[in-house]
Specification:
InterPro entries: Cyt/Met_Dipeptidase, Peptidase_M20, Peptidase_M20_dimer. By secondary structure, this protein is α+β, with helices and mostly antiparallel strands. It is about 35% helix and about 20% strand. The protein has 14 helices and 18 strands. A hairpin with a 6-residue loop joins strand 1 and strand 2 (about 65-70). It binds ligand BES and manganese (II) ion (2 copies). One manganese (II) ion binds near residues 153 and 425.
């Protein structure tokens, strides 16, 4: 009989085909037009987990289904809860994709498609590791529960409810989340902190309709001009956010973090070139890693208003708006920051226009203990699966639901990312490296073994 590792090594190509099958499903959670595709993806995963040997239940929600699966045959052993999300970001702008976002394509050792790295490829690695055990040894080294949601990219509203109403079902000794990245190709990372987020939209309204900018311009405040002026005051000349009290609760970096991060192989100039910018920019007094991982930010995600088509059109637009997100770090509170932001915008807005603000979503930052037995098991799994020891880092993205899991289930969490920083998450030409996919499956298998105490 084969070992799980032999099984993984000899089934690699099929695993990639199965990933491709899932990537063909257009599970965009934010846009109601894709609703059926999101449901179809849940169905695919449900059947897939059943074939692997799990007992599976799909829970309908107000929005997108939650797929729960369990295998609880390891009596007396710990239980691992593995979280992932099968929803993806919209593929736009389509014209910048070299191949269709939902036509998975292999090229230069990667698989290209929306969701390849965020997060279908990453959670599938765990499913395939479980399969390797069940199809060889006939059992897993630990009890395993999968919880896969379709709303991560829209704030995990349904799962937050679900965790509270299904506490016993989800009870576990460790939570495993693979929805982040390695530090760089070949240097896997255990992540102990993520940023939180507050997302809001600001709209200013002026005249009751678009006006001829010759006929009326100059006699009325232009909402686009006004909005631009408000936005231009969000940062001071030191790159600091001007929202009053914004930095009050920010936990300063610990000495060991500053030291450990400056020892990481990170080159600011290479980073500049990777981003394709003329110069790096950010809050004065901090390195790029510190700015990305440990400092809060305010960014305009999108801005609109007036004529956006070909050529020129001489109008004063009747309104203009911007989508804003702030990234929060420990110990900032999303409620408090959201309120301060709103007051700040009100104070900056002149009385010539009408201001409207909506809060999209908010979630607190996450700071996990940076050591412990589960961390050790994860480090050892990476060492065996990837052939190198992982580094311990923070990351700048947000996975809001992890906080709910940790606080509500009182469970230690491991953030074990398999992607790469250049995977183009949320961007055109998202990809996952195929060798990493394979190593991730191995690492997951070693992790299950390690958690089982073997
Ligand atoms: N997987 C990402 C979060 C992430 C990205 C963590 C990079 C670590 C490194 C996740 O799918 C994501 O994009 N989250 C959103 C959450 C938001 C929509 C509430 C984010 O960070 O913008
Ligand atoms: Mn993700
Ligand atoms: Mn994402």
């Amino acid at each position: 009989m084969k070992t799980p590792v032999e099984y993984i090594n000899s089934n690699g190509e099929r695993f990639v085909q199965e990933l491709a099958d899932m990537l063909r499903i257009e599970s965009v959670s934010t846009d109601p037009a894709y609703r059926d595709e999101v449901a179809r993806c849940a169905g695919y995963i449900h059947r897939h987990l059943e074939k692997v040997g799990f007992k599976v239940q799909t829970f309908e929600t107000k929005r997108h289904p939650i797929v729960y699966a369990e295998w609880l045959g390891a009596k007396g052993r710990p239980t691992a809860l593995i979280y992932g999300h099968y929803d993806v970001q919209p593929p736009d702008p389509l014209e910048l994709w070299r191949t269709g976002p939902f036509e998975p394509t292999m090229a230069d050792g990667n698989i290209y498609a929306r969701g390849a790295s965020d997060d279908k490829g990453q959670f599938l690695a765990h499913v395939k590791a479980a399969e390797a055990y069940l199809k060889t040894a006939g059992q897993l080294p630990v009890n395993v529960k999968f919880i896969l949601e379709g709303e991560e990219e829209v704030g995990s509203g349904s799962l937050a409810q679900f965790i509270k109403s299904h506490t016993d079902l989800l009870r576990a000794d460790v939570l495993i989340v693979s929805d982040s990245s390695q530090f760089e190709a070949g240097i896997p990372a255990i992540t102990y902190a993520l940023r939180g987020i507050v997302a809001a939209e600001v709209v200013v309204r002026g005249p009751n309709q678009d006006l001829h900018s010759g006929g009326f311009g100059g006699s009325v405040a232009n909402p686009a001009n006004v909005l631009a002026k408000i936005i231009s005051q969000f940062h001071d000349e030191h790159g600091r956010v001007t929202v009053p009290g914004f930095y009050d609760d920010v936990l300063p970096l610990a000495e060991w973090e500053r030291e450990a991060w400056s020892a990481l192989p990170f080159d600011e100039e290479e980073y500049r070139q990777f981003l394709g910018v003329k110069e790096l920019y950010g809050e004065e007094g901090f390195s790029s890693l510190e700015r990305r991982w440990a400092r809060p930010t305010l960014d305009v995600n999108g801005i609109y208003g007036g004529y956006m088509g070909e050529g020129s059109k001489t109008i004063v637009p009747s309104s203009a708006g911007a989508k804003i997100s702030m990234r929060l770090v420990p110990n900032q509170d999303p409620e408090r920051i959201g309120r301060s932001f709103e007051e700040h915008v009100r104070a900056l807005c002149p009385s010539t226009v009408e201001l409207m603000m909506t809060k999209a979503h908010g979630s607190p930052p996450l700071l996990l203990p940076s050591e412990g037995p589960t961390m050790d098991a994860a480090a050892e799994a990476y060492r065996k699966g990837f052939g190198v020891k992982p580094v311990l880092i923070r990351q700048g993205g947000s996975i809001p639901i992890v906080t709910t899991f940790v606080e509500h289930l009182k469970v230690p969490a491991i953030l074990m990312g398999f992607g790469r920083p250049d995977d183009n998450l949320h961007s055109p030409n998202e990809k996952l490296n195929l060798e990493d996919f394979h190593k991730a499956i191995l690492a997951s298998a070693y992790l299950l073994e390690g958690l089982g105490g073997a």
